[in-house]
Amino acid sequence: MNRRVNVLGVGMIPFAKPGASDEYDVMGANAARAALEDAGIAYDEVEQAYAGYVFGESACGQAVMYRIGLTGIPVYNVNNNCSTGSTALMLARQAIEGGIAECVIAVGFEKMEKGAIGSHFSDRLNPVMRHMKVMNDLQGFTAAPGAAQMFGGAAREYAKANDTKPETFARISVKARKHAAKNPYAIFTDELSLDEVMASPEVFEPLTRYQCCPPTCGAAAAVLCSDEFAKKHGKSDLVQIAAQAMTTDFGSSFEPQSMIKMVGFDMAQAAAQQVYEKAGVGPEDRRQYLRWQVRHEPLRRSPLEGPSPGRNGSSPVRRAGLAIAWRSRATTGRGRSGRASTQPRSRRRLRGDDVSEELI
């Protein structure tokens, strides 16, 4: 069975610095309630819950969902480092797609600590030892945060190969802050100039403080459902998850040694290629579809390094690449019959009001 998966509702809360947020169960529950309200359904209609988090004890997902109701449904706790929230959404999608459930919820939440991300367990093998070896062989270690060294090292490699100026990397932060200024949920809502980004303290050359993401607390949720469930509730023209893929490291992530490949270039590229193929679109179609690209970008350098398909992690690097393509049902060419469009890709155009905004 390979059913269509619809996004019935979404919810999010404003993000905050560590020490300024609610407790994790409150944040997660508020995001889940917002998603249920957006979906227009009651919690007792949800059959399964997928809860993603990294920093917390076992079964935090139950603590979140119990605030909403005690309905006896299974709650699956997901920890997959920087792709945790995306993984929870993927598992939720698979439950609908495979006919296991008709309506499920995915919720991601994090209550982080102040300071740079580090390891919490010193009595066992660090899961990113392979990656650390590559970095040590290529550039050694410094006192800078590990994530800054890894992604900063990739930025250095990219700059050397492409003659990229530090200002080019800094402009990514300027662009990100412009978007954040229009987002009421963003932790930072003040725009930054190029001069301000460049003048902020250096963390790891070429990265400055304003090019690095701080620890952040927040939550978001999504309610997914089948066509049958949507029809039963009088819902139509819903957003559809058109394609989704997940990858992990390839041998090329480690040999030949490259900082760019070590931080995830090849797996991100492979995930993007899989999604384009499944969705039946390509990079040239990007303005025709509502598309969300979800991946971990702890440093504002990543968009320069090639195809990019959130933000959680107990170690500095994302170990799973995930690309998600979203498009509204109106854009699929399938209509209610479920048949694929026979129009050539280049002719499948949308009106300006079909997609309100492209999110990249």
Characterization of this structure:
The protein is of the alpha+beta class and 360 residues long. Helices cover 31% and strands 15% of the residues. The protein has helices at residues 24-39, 60-66, 84-97, 129-139, 146-162, 166-180, 194-199, 227-232, 259-262, 265-279; strands spanning 6-12, 48-52, 75-78, 103-110, 202-204, 207-208, 218-225, 239-247, 321-328. The strands form two sheets. Strands 3-2-4-7-1-8-9 form a seven-stranded mixed β-sheet, with helices on both faces. A two-stranded antiparallel ribbon has the order 5-6. β5 (202-204) and β6 (207-208) form a beta hairpin. α1 crosses α2 (60-66).
Low-pLDDT ranges: 290-298, 306-321, 327-360
Structure classification: alpha+beta
> How many beta strands in the DSSP annotation?
9
Quick one: overall form? globular
Order of helices and strands: EHEHEHEHHHHEEEHEHHE
Strand order of the largest sheet: 3-2-4-7-1-8-9
The number of distinct helices, counting runs of at least 4 residues, comes to: 10
Described by strand count, sense and barrel closure, the largest sheet is:
7 strands, mixed
> How helix-rich are the residues, as a percent range?
25-40%
Determine the mean pLDDT: 83
How far the N terminus sits from the C terminus, by CA atoms, comes to 31 Å
Please tell me how large the radius of gyration is. Answer: 21 Å
Strand content: 15-25%
Furnish the topology, listing elements before pairings.
Layout: E1 6-12, H1 24-39, E2 48-52, H2 60-66, E3 75-78, H3 84-97, E4 103-110, H4 129-139, H5 146-162, H6 166-180, H7 194-199, E5 202-204, E6 207-208, E7 218-225, H8 227-232, E8 239-247, H9 259-262, H10 265-279, E9 321-328
Parallel strand pairs: 2-3, 2-4
Antiparallel strand pairs: 1-7, 1-8, 4-7, 5-6, 8-9
Helix pairs in contact: 1-2
